[in-house]
What does this fold into?
Amino acid sequence: MKRLYITLLSLSSLFFINCSDDYLDKNPISDVSEESFFLTASDLELYTNGFYLMLPNSTARNEIFTYDSQCGDIVHNTLSDLMIGARIVPATGGGWNWGNLRNINYFLENYERCEDEAAKNRFGGVARFFRAYYYFGMVVNFGDVPWYDTTMEADDEGLYKARDSRQFVVDKILEDLDWAINNMGDEQYAYEVSKFTALALKSRVALFEGTFEKYHGISGYEKYLEAAADASEELMDTGVYSLYSTGNPNLDYADLFRAETAQTTEVILAREYTEPLTNGHRANYYTLTGSQGRPGMPKSAVNSYLNSDGSRFTDQADFNAVSFADETVDRDPRLAQTIRTPGYSRVGEGTALPPDLSFSITGYHITKFVTSSNSDGINQNTNDLPVFRFAEVLLNFAEAKAELGTITQDDLDRSIGLLRNRVGMPGLSMDDSNADPDDYQAMIYPNVSGANQGLLLEIRRERRIELYMEGHRWNDIRRWKVGQSITLPLRGIYLPGAGEYDLDGNGSIDTVIYEGDAPADQIAGAKYFKLGADIHLSEDNLIDPLPEFNTRSFNEDRDYLLPIPIQELQLNPNLTQNPNW
It folds into this structure.
């Protein structure tokens, strides 16, 4: 039976302190009696079930889907404070929250009272995984943070310590993950943390830290890249996970994200959704109504998809002046499995649908995670959402080895090559990539250099495409130190002025752009948009989704980290603020 995480809120209320913005504002941990609890495997499982609430969700807050809108990889009709330079130092909150950590540390201080060794190994690993997961988020957001591995009371001097270095904290994270890897069994779970989930998180954490330190000029980064490559390869060598091969009639790239049950050949850990309204998410509603920001893929992402023969779309001189129907033909199949392209129809239906500019502000209408029309209401999707999947591990492996300069063509074939083969794309050649680096990708990532410049650009291209809309993009921008990329123009499809358009190339007009008053006689089935009001075009006739925000800024000396809230600095005089906040 699938685990119903929706019940965890009620369960955890029996045993957990509240997670508060202020780590001094907490309920007494005496709500749990050590004498009567932590004695059986069931006790340990019940307590650790609450940790899963830390995973991203996609109900009312759309967390999973909108992480990437923070940096413009999904364009909405409003921009994040990050993108417009409007973030401020908050008085309190702001992500500086410690309740989850206290819950985890309390468990680790008490769980060994259980005499079931197998249960202690498994759930001790779960707790250490979540402590690593928690602290990884803190390091990503704040850099140096205090490391606490015991519960603290308000009068404990250690509570008011200074920040530990990010390297110290990351080393502790890796220690926790190594404990989980070495002590948890070989059981595979779709919705519960396992040894394999710990390996995947180790791969993610180590790659982030290694590349962050490399591109931000911090010495000692090599050991983290080596740890990322080793963890990735260890998971690859287990043989537990694989990718569906080309032409599999039962599941392709798009189907992986529409599946009602997580596909455990590739998904390492999934967020489960089971019942509409009470435990559903809103992927359909998010992309098919005008009330969710009209999300659209930006042109820069579309331009990054290769042609189906492996050549670069942006090598043609007019790549920004190609009709939608023409620019989406003969491309990497993942483009047509991520946005509406000619011939697209809803799951279980046969009617071809063009992109709908009413629901997509760029015209590149996202379809990833979208299922049948039966799930179009608010929070009615029940398809599971991956939190960790094998494709990310393959990408981590290739990038870590490329950054270290130790990658071989065989390494590429067993990582990026598998991703491309799965969708029928040609493999990635190390020699060809480095002999002719892509100028378009170099514009987005100008600080990549060295012998593997071309290869690293291709790996970054692959990562953006394969992991699109899965919440990785902003963290990738942070670690690569390419914050200026979010100030590049946001653009949509090519529309050379007012006129009638057959966007999907099926012979029927589906979109009309008009000036002045709306035409009295309208084409049945077509959508009408007023130029300069409903639709804005740039000088080169690309949709300009947010002309009022065409001038944006990113502070390279400040914006990669979040500020520590004012109240926390007042409570703990040993804390220091992040630079330039």
DSSP finds 22 helices and five strands in the chain.
